[in-house]
Amino acid sequence: MAGNVWVLAEQWRGEVSEITYEVLALGSELAMALGVKLQAVLLGHRMESLAETLGKADGVLYVDHAALEEPTAEAQGAALSQLVKEGQPHSVLIPLTNVSLGVEALIAAELQLPVVNFCEDLRVVERRLQARCLLYGGKMEVLVRALREPVIFGIPPGTRPAEKGRAARVPALEEVAVTFPEAPAVRFTKYIEPEAGDVDITKQDVLVAVGRGIQTQDNIALAEELAQALGGAVCGSRPVIDQGWLPLSRQVGKSGLTVKPKLYIAAGVSGAPEHVEGMKNASLIIAINTDPHAPIFSLAHYGIAEDVLEVLPALTEEVHKAIRKKAG
Amino acid sequence: MNVLVLLRMVPDVVEELEVAPEGRTLDLQVLRMILSESDDHALEEALLLKERHGGTVTVLALDSPDIDDVLFTSLAKGADRAVKVTGLDMRVTSRGLAHIFAQTIATPGSLGPADLILTGTQAIDEWDGSVAPLVAHFLRLPFVPIVVQVAVGTSGGTATVIKEYPGGIRGEFEVRLPAVLGIQAAEKAPRYVPVAKVRAAAKSRRIETLPGPPHMVPAFVEVLQMMKPEVAGHAEMLEGPVEKIASRVCEILAERGLV
Amino acid sequence: MVPTTAKLGPVPGWAILWLVFLVAVGLFAWRVVFLLRLLRLGRPENRLDRIPARLKRLLVYVFGQLRLLDEPLVGIPHGLIFYGFVVFLMATTGMILQGLLPGLPIPTIEESRHLAPVVDIFAVLVLGGLVVSSFRRFVIRPPGLQLTLDATLVNVLIASLMVTYLLTTGFRLVALAGESRIWLPVSDPLARWLGGVESLRAHTLALHQMFWWMHVLIVLSFLVYLPYSKHMHLLAAPFSVFFSRLDPPGRLAPPAHGEGAGAERVKEFTWRQLLSAFACAECGRCERACPSNQSGEPGSPRQLVHNLKEQLLRYGPILLRKASAGANGGEPTLLGGLIAPAELWSCATCLACEERCPVLNEHLSINVDLRRRLVERGEVDPRLEEALRNLTRYGNSFGQSERKRAAWTQGLDFKPKDARKEPVEWLWYVGEYACYHPALHGITRSLVRVLRAAELDYGILYEAERNSGNDARRVGEEGLFELLRDKNTTVLSKALFNNLFSTDPHVYNTLKNEYPELNHGRHQIYHYSELLANLLERGRLRVGQKLAYQVTYHDPCYLGRYNGVYDAPRSVLKALGVKLEEMPRSRRNSFCCGGGGGRIWMEDTPGIRERPAESRVREAASLRGVQVLVVACPKDYVMFSDAVKTTGLEGRLVVKDLTELVAEAMGVGPQA
Questions:
Q1: How far apart are CA A327 and CA B75, in angstroms?
Q2: Across the interface, do B222 and A144 touch by the CB < 8 Å criterion?
């Protein structure tokens, strides 16, 4: 039991998050390299059925308690701390998302364990784990190693393909009891849904994304025209939504939606990690940005280092031409 | 309503970042530090709470060459006290910083009681743990991350906060005070304070100092190497006059049946 | 036979005149004293320096009516009315004195054989002037010129004064029955005609007296009405001209010391700014010249001054009563009250308003003081705020690293000397747009090649160069301006150079006018067009191949109106051999691109008619044959290039900087 690789299976509102499978894929690699088992940890209330999807793991540790019904880091952290103390794994991989954020620090503080954030990749080197962390908005990487164990790793989205974390088998389920604080200091009251947008961007095949490079709210019309011509919709990065130029339902990224369209045109988007998280798996990414060093260009398939306000109308016109040619 | 705001300086990524010759840290020559963006929001949220409920706002930071300007700016914006922890090596990691903050706050008589401790929910250099939750848990205080709105209950013993979830969904939580909140964004954009006011604050206001904790927490994580990210790939750049680029793009789209 | 010797009922005429006269003068004086007390609410300011220059202004602008002659349709009638007024002032004073003291031998103009004809002719000239000006006001109806009761009343009063004067004189001549030995070119034929009318013959004397009384009473009523109407500009204008600003317009007055930069209430403005309110004749010339107003942005210079006047007249009385309760003596703030902040932010500081104002009002300083207060309160549009933050931190509004300031020099065969390290003859202050804006790099590099061909000994400050602060100051961020100026002054004092030139008129303006340490030093400060003109003249630059373009030239606001440099760029163009055709709005009437005063950092108001830059490029394109719009300011280049695209004029008009043409003519252009 001790010395295994653990993965916290993130579940939210009754579903296992996509990122869980990514982390399971990573965890499985590490477990294999270390010659140990992969254990998934599932925390919730009446969620056993979800454990069936975690077949990539050798086993699932399950904690069922009403306190885990709602997503507070306190409850999850309390549970995971006790499990880790008892189980003494080699390392614990925790998804770094809006849902699970905070859990990793809680255990680290509680048990005096090292925690490593922003791990883009983990490798086993001489039977120890080395993590490659992406820092400073994506501008620098550090290779780090923990000085004691167990180690907590915070894993952002996109480290491994989710398919690699799924498996057909149903893993063994072990239910464990833990104690919870009587009166939690943080109490979840309710979810606030965003206003239903007219468009569900996660279901679009074509998305034209606007970032700060669009400069003004009026210019979004240029993106609208292109989106319309291509039969898609407009979405935006956080700064555009914060300004109120687009509703929340159009936000792509860490606090927004994750999209996987066939075509993603990033107009005036710099490519900050929080945004990239939400769209990196698009099939074809074309980026337009006046700054040829913008991070988006390392991700995109095609890049155009010109003014967005010139390129968008030009593209729209070409698309119209092509459509007319096809029709006529 | 006494609010404590924790401020940190992070590398300004507008500048080019370079690796120092020893290969494990940032080259200080080309480095410029700037206040972490979400800490700026934390300060704004604290000032908004003060405007609504009265009380005081205290800002706390680690001493560093550029920190005075940041602290005077906070005072010019409306903070009541600015305190810096001196006598320590500023090259401390995020976990170390969290420890320093926690120790300073816990030391009786240094800062006065705080009902709320606000700081940015995350910063760009926190590879060995985020400061916000670590401070909370070192102090054994309740914590909520990614907060975008704070409302204080009439009794003053609890706060209602709103946290961001994916997909534009938000969650509402009730938190028993005192508590630590990781602020993602303030309810309003951080206010502008004219240069003249900052300069006036630099002349008339005082920054208090506190000594650092006697011993530093040992590092739990070591850096083996720092390097520029290997660019896995790069976009094929399309060049030439805009019209030509546009028609090339159309060709590409047509090839894939998107047009 | 003075009319007041006759009795009106039981009372002698002169007694009644005395009564009316004293009441009228009393009311007039009381009102004028009140207006003066309102002016004294303002902050002190010394405008009594350089008196000879001030007297010259009086001569040129008041007696010479210089600004009004811009538009002859206005200038000539107004001139006639103005001089008519002066003449009639003398004539009527004589009449009234005579009426008050009928026994005394008071010399009047009527009795002067040289002056009487002049008054006579002026009566008709003034009437003629009124016809033209009324036609303009009521039929042509130029925008900005308002149809108010006030204006109509004044026109009617002046006309009736002329008519009553003529009739008084006419009937007097009839009564004298040819005994007058003074030739009156208008009144003589009038008298002959009047004398021929049978029905009037019996009442000649009575009619003369009646029209005399009418004339005097109308004058006295006018006297009383004057300080209540916009015609108080008659009283105030000579003072506003005398006390006008002698410093160059490019030197803004710093804010007063003490509490709060800027102004939002009456007492925070200077007395001269408040005087603008009384001197303003509401003629609307400033509004018609204002590029922001013409494009549909809110506010106008006229409105600004008018609202200040409103505030002063409405709340001044309350403030004068010392025992006033309430904060600020009960005066609400102008900001968000009579003046919406949007009106203040729409100003491009182009100075067209001040250039046209006949009474030399200072609209810009009022606007900037109000902006200073908005900035102090932190009420700044988000995009502007971002620019200010960037300026504070990075020394440029683009938010790019200071270290990249000289990135444009990369790849040049011969880099400019580093003026921080070695002494140079000329310091080239490049300016942030030329350094950071990608569209301008080619031009900046071309100038390097040109200067090299001229073998000019010059250098640049590389990364030590920061924004000069011109636009930060005009946006109202005085603290930021001072910060930038302090840093720049330190850098400049350490560099070794003789003279300085800049490619950016905004930089040129502030370095020339607002950097005391530079100004009082040995350094001469130029715009690069002046340098190029000089080099061409002296043969240091040789034109290899004359250019065959047909061009028009846009005078940048900060080069032309602000600093009077109109000829240097034109002489450069002449030396290049291009054919220059002037736009209708050129030189002092140049129409701003709309980018100054921080506008280039702000959002356009949605739904405006036509941006100033668009109007300007259309104006250039309206000149048939003109292919090139030549600019000498990087912001103009950016604004006009953009406007050419948005107006669909690509292919018809191309925007080029002066440098590009010079480089081409010398064979050192980008292709070289």
A1: 65
A2: yes
Phi, psi of A300 (to 5 degrees): -70, 160
pTM above 0.80, yes or no: yes
Query: What are the beta bridge partners of residue B144?
Result: B181
C-alpha of B78 from chain center: 18
Q: Do strands A11-12 and A15-16 pair parallel, antiparallel, or not at all (unpaired)?
A: antiparallel
Q: How far apart are CA C347 and CA C343, in angstroms?
A: 7
- CA distances (Å), origin C232, targets A185, C96, C277, C301, C511: 72, 22, 10, 19, 39
Dist. CA A49–CA C466, nearest whole Å:
64
Average pLDDT for chain A: 90
Q: How far apart are CA C127 and CA A214, in angstroms?
A: 60
Domains (range + CATH), chain A: 5-175 (3.40.50.620), 201-327 (3.40.50.1220)
Compute CA distances B9 → A138, C344, C516, whole Å: 17, 36, 37
B195: chain C residues, CB-CB within 8 Å: 392, 477, 479-480, 482-483
**Rounded Cα gap, residues C586 and C629, in angstroms:** 12
Q: Are C123 and C84 in contact (CB under 8 A)?
A: yes
The answer, for C650 touching chain A at a CB cutoff of 8 Å, is no
Of 1.10.3720.10, 3.90.226.10, 3.40.30.10, 3.40.50.620, the CATH number of B2-211 is 3.40.50.620
> Does the pLDDT at position A1 exceed 60?
no
Interface of A with C in 285-314 (CB under 8 A): 290, 310
The beta-carbon neighbor of B235 closest among A73, A110, A301 is A301
What's the token pair of residue C155?
């026109």
pLDDT tens for each residue of C391-434: 999 999 999 999 999 999 998 888 999 999 999 999 999 999 99
Residue A320, exposed/middle/buried by CB under 10 A (0-12, 13-18, 19+)?
middle
Q: Which residues make Cβ contacts (< 8 Å) with residue A134, sequence separation at least 6?
A: A118, A120, A140, A141, A156, A273, B229
Q: Maximum Cα–Cα distance for chain B, whole Å?
A: 71
**Ramachandran region of residue C58, left (φ > 0), alpha (ψ -120 to 50) or beta?**
alpha
- Domain positions in chain B: 2-211
Q: Are B139 and B105 in contact (CB under 8 A)?
A: yes
3-class DSSP assignment, residue A251: strand
Confidence of residue C327 (pLDDT cuts 50, 70, 90): low
Give me the helices (H) in chain A, please: 18-34, 48-51, 73-87, 103-111, 220-230, 238-242, 273-276, 296-299, 308-327
C539-557 burial, b at 16+ Cβ within 10 Å, e below that, comes to eebeeeeebebebbbbbbb
pLDDT in tens, C445-462: 999 999 999 999 999 999
Are A255 and B146 a contacting pair at CB < 8 A?
yes
Q: Are C569 and C261 in contact (CB under 8 A)?
A: no
Residue spans of alpha helices (H) in C135-203: 149-176, 187-196, 198-201
The span from the CA of C223 to the CA of B211, in Å, is: 77
Rounded CA-CA distance B138/A109 in Å is 6
Asked if B30 has any chain A CB less than 8 Å from its own CB, the reply is no
Q: How confident is the model at residue C520 (pLDDT cuts 50, 70, 90)?
A: low
Q: Express each pLDDT in C345-401 by its tens digit.
A: 999 999 999 999 999 999 999 999 999 999 999 999 888 999 999 999 999 999 999
HSE-CB of C438 using CA atoms within 13 angstroms: 8
At residue C672, the pLDDT reads: 46
Instruction: Dig out the tokens for A278 from the structure.
Output: 């939400």
Residue with structure tokens 């916009």?
C230
Quote the CA–CA distance of A261 and C496 in Å, as a whole number: 60
